[in-house]
Design goal:
Elements: E1 3-5, H1 7-20, E2 25-33, E3 37-45, E4 52-57, E5 60-65, H2 66-72, E6 75-82, E7 85-91, E8 97-98, E9 105-106
């Protein structure tokens, strides 16, 4: 089981965590939503729970709960800029389909 960040994503996350004051780890998860079924959840956290797994990628601790790990195993997270837009890009091998707007996915 693994979750990885590209070097570019890790640099962005490190800057974000340093300025957020909300935690020193990145929580990655999924929640039911959207037209395809699930959406990614990304937020800073301080604590690690009993049902969490911690992955370290380029010096960043990525926390994933056991339920989300079933959907995220093998995912690589990148940070991209296209024109004026920037954000995380999830290279998730478990995704079977995405909605037209790209906000949700199904497995």
């Amino acid at each position: 089981m693994s979750i990885t960040l590209t070097e570019r994503a890790a640099q962005h996350v490190q800057r974000f965590l340093a300025s957020s004051g909300e935690g020193n780890r990145l929580r990655l998860g999924v929640k039911p939503t959207g037209c395809s079924g699930y959406a990614y959840v990304v937020k800073p956290v301080q604590d690690v729970g009993e049902h969490d797994q911690v992955f370290v990628s380029h010096g960043v601790q990525v926390v994933v709960d056991d339920q989300s790990l079933d959907f995220l195993n093998g995912t690589e997270v990148d940070f991209t800029r296209e024109g004026l837009n920037e954000g995380f890009k999830f290279n998730n091998p478990n995704v079977a389909a995405t909605c037209g707007c790209g906000e949700s996915f199904s497995v």
